[in-house]
Amino acid sequence: xxxxxxxxxxxxxxxxxxxxxxxxxxxxxxxxxxxxxxxxxxxxxxxxxxxxxxxxxxxxxxxxxxxxxxxxxxxxxxxxxxxxxxxxxxxxxxxxxxxxxxxxxxxxxxxxxxxxxxxxxxxxxxxxxxxxxxxxxxxxxxxxxxxxxxxxxxxxxxxxxxxxxxxxxxxxxxxxxxxxxxxxxxxxxxxxxxxxxxxxxxxxxxxxxxxxxxxxxxxxxxxxxxxxxxxxxxxxxxxxxxxx
Length: 244
Fold this sequence. Notes:
It is a single chain. With 244 residues, this protein is of the alpha/beta class. The protein has one domain (2-240): Metallo-dependent phosphatases (Purple Acid Phosphatase, chain A, domain 2, 4-Layer Sandwich), CATH 3.60.21. Helix content is 38%, strand content 23%. It has helices spanning 16-28, 54-70, 87-93, 124-133, 136-144, 147-167, 170-173, 177-187; strands at residues 2-6, 33-38, 74-77, 95-98, 101-106, 109-114, 191-194, 201-204, 213-216, 223-229, 234-240. The strands form two sheets. A six-stranded mixed β-sheet has the order 4-3-2-1-10-11. Helix 2 crosses helix 3 (87-93).
């Protein structure tokens, strides 16, 4: 048996090759699967469950089929792009929403999973913005705005975020090691699995010897990656994203 983790697909109508890669993943990776964890940023932008696009509906259909046909639980942790995904879409997709930091028992190993944006403390501008946009009152007000206006706001934020990201250095986009240590100690876990930084790989946690490590599941672009955990190993697997 195995458990799968993915993150940072950033699906959108402008990247049909990624959508096809995701559907191929669901078609191929459904044997002996205990659970699928999606660690945020499944979509490039999300402005509310009341928006309906062919992409959103098709993704929901594929996920619900994956769950119902193969009896595979699907768990979702919000990303920084799609933190507004709500209970309505989660139900439509047969996904169970999880809190931003969540502990699981992964084949006798205690593991902490998250999207990973809260690890990047050096990105002070983003952390300030995150506190604002995660305010429940502001989210309620945003959801009360007309859908057309929310779309404009969402894509403006996306465009600004992409422009700033191009100029950020790796030490800003990367994780803050002291925060990794702190969270692993607080949650008493030996492994952290996350996304967000797009720096795929397995890393020893500084100051913790070989006892603790973190794994960045990686983003989807020219190739995609996912983490496969079994009772005997936890590894990152890569597959090509084929052009259309």
